[in-house]
Design brief:
The chain has 222 residues and is α/β, with parallel strands linked by helices. It has 11 helices and 8 strands. An 8-stranded mixed beta sheet has the order 1-8-7-2-6-3-5-4, sandwiched between helices. The relative contact order is 0.22.
Length: 222
């Protein structure tokens, strides 16, 4: 599954670009995210992919924007969706949603806050957001903890689809740890930026942990 996302000049402003599936649902980009949504559904006819990871080989390839718009697109179909910032080193989702000093994933995993009080209701379809929370001294330890495994089991009972915005595969071990526990991974590549060898290596590392790579989103440069 490879889909091109062409960026238009009218959508260069960050907020509009991040939420184009909501702010401009009739646009070509929004339609392409609906196509991605459909492809994911057809790839899981026998077993629904409830937990999805959005990642990339390296930084600045558009994975957070892709995670937001895919989550919006799925929620617009009537599903209850939870978007989670699992980038515990350089979280960005709280910035995109203009949240400050919010509780999040790490607070829930460490027992500092119940899940229902850490969830942010976006008012976009049935989309909820769980920010990263406090940045821990050792993110890898938290991602690989028993608490995360229990969390994954519990969260699948509460939501139809859970989407994790994860760190780049080649920059941390966090994503590989989580990928092996989730139903599918979608890799985001940027045309003209992503190194082919890095993309191949990222795919190899994901398959080593038996992650199911569902496909690739190819972003075009402006």
């Amino acid at each position: 599954m490879v889909l091109k996302l062409s960026k238009k000049k009218a959508l260069r402003e960050m907020t509009k670009r991040h939420f184009v599936s909501y702010t401009n649902p009739n646009s070509e980009i929004a339609e392409q995210f609906r196509t991605i949504r459909t492809n994911i559904q057809f790839s899981s006819i026998d077993h629904k992919h409830k937990t999805l990871i959005i990642t990339s080989p390296s930084s600045c390839e558009g994975k957070t924007t892709s995670a937001i718009n895919l989550a919006i697109s799925i929620s617009q179909q009537g599903e209850k969706v939870l978007l989670i910032d699992a980038n515990l080193r350089k979280p960005k989702l709280h910035i995109s949603f203009n949240l400050k000093d919010s509780y999040g994933l790490t607070d829930v995993l460490m027992g500092r806050q119940p899940l229902e009080e850490a969830i942010f209701q976006t008012q976009i379809g049935r989309l909820d957001l769980l920010p990263s929370g406090i940045i821990p001294p050792d993110p890898t330890e938290i991602i690989g903890s028993n608490a995360m495994r229990y969390f994954l089991n519990d969260i699948k009972e509460e939501y139809d689809t859970v989407i994790f915005d994860c760190p780049p595969v080649l920059e941390t071990t966090d994503t590989k740890l989580l990928a092996g526990q989730c139903d599918g991974v979608i890799m985001v590549l940027k045309s003209g930026k992503t190194d082919r060898e890095k993309a191949v290596e990222a795919n190899r590392l994901l398959r080593l942990v038996r992650a199911k790579v569902l496909g690739v989103i190819l972003n075009e440069r402006e």
